Amino acid sequence: MTKKSIYFGTLLLTALAFGSCASDDTATDKTAGKDTPKTGTVFSSEDEPSTRTSATYTGSGLDFYWTANDKIWVKDDNNTYHQSSEDDIASRIAAVPGSTTTAKAKFWVNGTYTGSTHKVRYTGKNGASDKVTIKASQTQSTPNDAAHIADDGDFGVADATGSGKYSFTLNHKAAYVTFMPYNANGVIPGAKIQKIRVYTNNTSDQLAGTFDLADNGTLSNGTTTSNSVELNVNDFTLPSAYSYTTNGATMVVNPGTYSNVTIEYTLHDAGTNVTGTVKKTYPSVTFDAGKNTPVKSDLKIKVYHGNEYYMWDAVEPYWKGYEWNNSNTALRFQPIVNGQRDPVHGPQSTETASAHTSRDYNDMLAYNDPTGVASPVTAAHSAKDCPNLNELHWYAEKGEPYWDDTTLWATMDHLYVGGMWFLKQKEIASKNSKNISDLKLAAPDGINYTRKIMGTIVPLTYSISTGIPSNLNDYFYYPALGIYNSIPTARGEFVASGTIGCIWSSTPAKTDITLQQAFILRISSSNIQIYATLRNSGLTLFNSSNEDEYRPF
């Protein structure tokens, strides 16, 4: 019997693991009154509903139902297949207000049927008697509703038994995969799932195509085959724990065992216009005929803070009291996507120290001892654990940086891409015959810039590589978290997230102008720069002693 709208029961399986199941449906008979007189031999699926499909899974798998326009094929006494000409599906559906499916159905089929057993085939909507087409591109519009499989490749066979009137139990022979992606690191409301793709690295594999169908339900002689099947979905949400009711998505594939299988999830954020993919690869996967394979994948997209933008060495964050996630929704004034601006609720910095609030920058003077004997001047509050100017030089010059424009990450409910991989300090020190503590005392050229009079300087620019380093264990990642603008005409505007990242150092700069400055490390897709910038910008913090905290996976 076929089944169309597949609804999911509890699909219990460990994350990233595969299992197979197909459950029976136990829905009640939805027949509305008496059947209208019809012609042909009756083939009924209603006599043995509890054994309609096989089940090897202890939880609930896929429940199969009939929907409007479903047809079957039956082999008559002359070994000719005839398609059902009439059925009672519509009347059964009409008997239950709001329903679009029925668990049982009767079909009327022309031809001569005198045997005790006759072969039955279901080949999907508008299918041929001897051909099955599993589509390489499938579409599911609603979570937890796989009605599309009738159009995308579902098929089955049965032996109808009886005399004059026959009954059958359809054995589904396609393989089904139900995806339930989630992100344990946190919900990302802006991130929507657009497509799920399964593919192998062997172009001769036949996950999809048009095949000959045998009476026993096996497929052969594939044409127009593909080693890839994609399932397009309608912006399904990404929860923090697997939930088939939230985003359950089912795909039809050709049964078989396949090597080096990749599942690729494509996500899009309309608010940031970011599209990216997350891939999971498995060495071998078996998709069993008539069974459902539940796939519960944690996409592990890193969710970064949105409340830790500061003016240089301020006591409290830039948007303290007006955070994007403030418990009082009326106070959520922090801009969260590029181009949003709020010049009113950000800190109203002034050059008069006595007027500063806890959100304004530290006014401490920079190092000013021409002899270089005095101790370094360093941040005292939020920036005190940031790398000093010497450490910035080590990261920029010896950190072997890579710009990564593929790894997805999130902040403040939205999806982004773009960030820099750096060697960890322990690796930098080891490669340069140093101890980690040495990196704080002097830059690669041997100069201690924290005990040198340094004012506004032309940005020092360093080249980078692109991609993802192969030795990831030696690296940490820092995302391009953007900045809150200090320019008077654009104060409080959020800009460049996913494009630029600016990390405060703990080292203030001697000002050559009215406005106070401090040193930063600036990352982008084209280079790394070290320079002094205005202290009233809203930039991020970075603690070099906890580099792994920033890894995206």
Structural features, described:
This protein folds into 2 domains: 7-295, no CATH class; 362-550, no CATH class. Strands 2, 4, 5, 6, 7, 8, 11, 12 and 13 form a 9-stranded mixed beta sheet that branches. Strands 10-18-15-20-21 form a 5-stranded mixed beta sheet, with no helix packed on it. The protein has 553 residues and is mainly β. A hairpin with a 4-residue loop joins strand 20 and strand 21 (274-287). It is 6% helix and 34% strand. The model is unreliable at 1-35 and 47-59 (pLDDT under 50). It is elongated, with a radius of gyration of 32 Å.
General form: elongated
The amount of beta strand, in percent, is 25-35%
The SS-based structural class is: mainly beta
The main pleated sheet reads as:
9 strands, mixed
Query: How helix-rich are the residues, as a percent range?
Result: under 10%
What does the average pLDDT come to? 88
N- to C-terminal separation? 44 Å
Task: Write down the Rg.
Answer: 32 Å
How many helix segments? 6
SS elements, strand count: 35
Question: How many structural domains can be distinguished in the coordinates?
Answer: 2
Contiguous uncertain segments of 5+ residues: 1-35, 47-59
Write a short abstract of this structure.
This protein is mainly beta. The protein has six helices and 35 strands. Strands 2, 4, 5, 6, 7, 8, 11, 12 and 13 form a nine-stranded mixed β-sheet that branches.
